[in-house]
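Session log. Operator J.P. requested a structure for one protein chain; no other inputs attached. Running the standard single-chain path with token output.
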Amino acid sequence: MKRYFLLALLLPVLSAFAQSKKEKLGEIMKTYHDYNMFDGAVLVAENGKVIYKGAFGLANREWNIPNTTDTKFMIGSVSKPLTCILALIQVQKGLISLDKTIADYLPEFSGKPAAAVTIRQLMSHSSGMPNYDIIKDFFPRISRQHFSREEYIKIYMDSALVFTPGSSYYYSSWGFFTLGYILERVTGKSYSQLMKEDMLDKLGMTGTGSYFHTQVIEKRASGYDYSLGGYTSA
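Structure written below.
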């Protein structure tokens, strides 16, 4: 009886502790939202159990549609660490090596400034490859044009390196596009197919996938920028 009595006393305490943790998480996220620092959906798990989930802000400001916990969001450069994981999976399969170069996998670019850059350097932003902001009006003139992979990579492969590969750090989206293109070449699969088969399906991430700006995605939130002047469409 003493054991049962002790357990009966502990259960309300544990429940109150869990409740207070959930409430604290909710308060933290609400504060970020109130200061215009966060709109989106949140899920926090501990030891395999969901202890908090919630949604904040609007998925569409023109129609005043709120975010929900199943709203889909564009993740932008969060795709870069996912691409690194995908690359490491191909390393495990023996399809690529971290210390082989762009020229090893894309021989048509031998002799270009970035030819000797390694897979490891692409993944760690230490390749010395520049970023797209070196091109004036890149977004309106280039980013949404219908280039093939082969056409797009040629736009920047003649660009001079910012530094000797491996000697420093410089954030480069072009480096990661190159990495993604190499993964496509060595596997014979598209980036989106490879991501789905090697990662998303195995993790049960059925609501996640690759996105192209002309696609219509159910429950996708519109993108916005926020500054002191308010919100603008991204």
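Operator note: The chain is about 40% helix and 10% strand.
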